[in-house]
TrEMBL record:
Keyword hit for Iron: yes
Listed PANTHER family: FLAVOHEMOPROTEIN
Requisite cofactors: heme b
Protein name per Swiss-Prot or TrEMBL: nitric oxide dioxygenase
EC number, UniProt record: 1.14.12.17
Reactions the enzyme catalyzes: 2 nitric oxide + NADPH + 2 O2 = 2 nitrate + NADP(+) + H(+); 2 nitric oxide + NADH + 2 O2 = 2 nitrate + NAD(+) + H(+)
Record-stated family: Belongs to the globin family.
An example Gene Ontology biological process: cellular response to nitrosative stress
FAD-binding FR-type domain: residues covered: 154-258
Domain Globin residues, every copy: 4-140
Amino acid sequence: MASPLDDKTRSIIKACVPALEAHGLAITTEMYRRLLANPDIRDLFNISHQKDGEQPKALALAVLAYARNIDNLGAMAGAVERIAEKHVGLNILPEHYPYVADALLGAIAHVLGDAATPEIMDAWGKAYWFLAEILIGREEQIYVAHAAAPGGWVGWRPFLVSRRTVESETVTSFELVPVDGKPIMRHVPGQYLSFRLDVPGYGSERRNYSISSAPGSRSYRISVRRIDNGVVSDWLHDSVHEGTVLQVSAPAGDFTLGNPAPAPIVFLSAGSGLTPFISMLGALDADAARGVRYIHTTRTPATEAFGPYIRDLAAKDMLHADLFYSRATPQAAQDATGVTTHAGRMTPAWLTHEIDRSASYYICGPDSFMRDAIATLKAGGVPESQIRFEFFGSAADAALVG
């Protein structure tokens, strides 16, 4: 267990908050420049988040939140759990942490210059290793649980693409079975798989994709949206076919339904944010599903993934769906039993009118969509404890940092 930080260290860290507000992004940008100079460390990261600046921004917000909450680290528990789960998915190990320490402390000294006094550097060294030891301990617990679970494993395991299914003009599903033919670890609905991919012309890439199938012991399914100029999504759509072998780590993530699932439930999604909800719906029995409100935004009917599945559940009175088409006007025929279609995006005014304060809300989609939905729900009186949300990539929006 990590030793508590002393009063002097915590006082220095708190005093650094204004400097982090002014220079945090410069520090994390420099940190990643140093860290990614090591090819072995570089391969652990999603490089696309470096090119668009999302990863340095997300880390700057996380470091700032850590400094602000240094006297109340319980407020960071949710963020710590998300980080630990993601690290396990990417197979981050204790021996990787010293590289991060060197890069972070070196970046602080580089950016702050003479303001980075020996006392400040000592305090940040202690603060880093305090948090690192918490993460290392939690990650070890998760690794042990994965190794002990029926069908579980640690590290990368080869899986074969056994089936491709086109779900819409932008989304394709890939069903995965283990090459060794042995059982797999049953995932908890809402979890994701992490992949180590060798993309021709780009080298090693890491990605996380939510599992879109119901829990089972034989296969997983992921459903991937093609992103404009997306290195990995283009490769998956264009080059990965039945018979392709992919390297996969065990299911991870804490964006999951409780057991038993809360009722009623509202799923709010945009774009490919629906994928964890498809898994959750597949795991609910008929009685539990009847308490579900499914609200989804997509561009057009042609980009709507799993539309027939949702309409089938609605026709069986297993959920009520509201489908928003941001770039199309739905035809009257697209409405069906239990399904209401809308032109345009879901607005805060519409959501406010539909709020059920007794419901648990699960939200997944682009950061701006999640931020607006969360703000609307909180303003409408929904307790924060009843609002859960998932990140696709880096948490680069200040409103979404735990």
